[in-house]
Amino acid sequence: MRILLVCPDCPYPPRDGGSLRIVNLARSLAGHASVMLLTYVVSPAETQALAEFGRQSRIQIHGVPRPARRNTLTRVWHKLLYYYSSYLFSSIPGPVRFNNQPMMRDALLKTLRDFAPDVIVWEYWFMAEFAHVARVTEPRPIQIADAIDLEWLRLERHAQVGQGLTKYWTTYIQPRVRRYTLDRYRRMDGVIFLSHADLQQAQRDLSNSERLKVVPMGLMLDEYPIPLTSPQPERVLFFGSFRHQPNVDALRFLLQEIWPHLQHERPQAALDLMGPGIPDWPRQYPNVRVLGFQPDIRPILAEASVVIAPLRFGSGVKIKILESMALGKAVVTTSIGAEGIEAQPGTDFIVADDAQALASETVRLLANPSIRASLGQHARQFIQIHHDADQIAKDFLARLNEFGVNRGLAR
Q1: Is the N or C terminus of the chain more exposed, i.e. has fewer CB atoms within 10 Å?
Q2: 408 within some domain
Q3: Are 209 and 234 members of one domain?
Q4: pLDDT at 76 (0 to 100)
């Protein structure tokens, strides 16, 4: 069987949960099928990184150069032209117009001819715009959308907590994103979701439930050894991509409302902040270390005594939490952070929602190594049972059977 994954951005090395989803799905499927990754690239460094990834993982790579924006003015103009103007003057969401470039259509046509995939997986809702290109080929490949998260639900929740222009803008674009996404999903042979929570949300709007399946996030468990290193006493970690608005909001919530409570109760506690796009202003807070983007998050993650994820809005499974659990970490998060993770609160991780409760639970864990160890042990066992990448690849292939793909169709 030949499987083509089509992505909007270079997923390797992973910079966020979505790119890790794509990388691990491709790697695990490569053990059972012939896999190609088709993606935009913006630099020679990305092209080189993808080539190395392909060699290591036995995956064919086709990088499509995205036009370079060499200065700030050009980048701002391009975003105004392709992103905001699309929402203002058409029914097409900004990410669709931004990614709908002729060089990707040309590359897709060439790939359909040369690689001849049996299955195409469109990563993220807006890449499904290219599905019409594949419908004219014979034999027609099965087309599947990998939802990763529910963008329209994230925007709806952002509007509920946002203020001023942010609230107005998200309220304005949310119906457009919802209509477009659901329309494209209805045209797919199948749609896969990271969790049953996401599936249930989608089922409210998509009548053909036989085409909707859950394929959870898979982790390569041998890449999360325990113990990787001993945790540092009193060290708390929050990490993620700070180009993602739910993480930016969570950072403000953490530093402005949670951290003062925590420092009052545990003044020796220290906070690490890790991930791409993190601003400089958190440096003004006491006992806070800003680490920025780390190519390999695991050494820093292993040093943490407690991982905190105080998300107030968002959608989809928070892969940062799964990675933390895989390394046997004690995790404190909110109801939004825990959404879609079918673990047991109080046994596998801690869930609290207001600032005082999040601070108090973190303090309790910092003060009790035995409770941290118990949570971490149960968390690791949960990941081993429910999020093993190889098993999930096999489940994905089984889902393809349900979508009407014959596994004997190997070329």
Answers
A1: C
A2: no
A3: no
A4: 66
The one-letter amino acid code at 100 reads N
Q: Which of 126-135, 184-193, 319-328, 392-401 has the least mean pLDDT?
A: 392-401
Same domain? For 194 and 282 the reply is: no
Contact criterion met (CB below 8 Å) for 291 and 300: yes
Tell me how many domains the chain contains: 2
Nearest to 3 by CA among 390, 389, 399, 397: 397
Q: How far apart are CA 315 and CA 197, in angstroms?
A: 10
Note whether 165 and 267 are same-domain residues.
no
Take residue 177 and report the two structure tokens written for it.
């994103």
φ, ψ dihedrals at 327, nearest 5°: -90, 10
298: pLDDT confidence band, cut at 50, 70 and 90? Answer: very high
Q: Domain limits at 251?
A: 222-386
CATH of residue 329 = 3.40.50.2000
**Pair 184, 249 in one domain:** no
- Which residues are CB-contacts of 377 (< 8 A; sequence separation ≥ 6)? 328
What length is written for the chain?
Answer: 411
pTM confidence score:
0.91
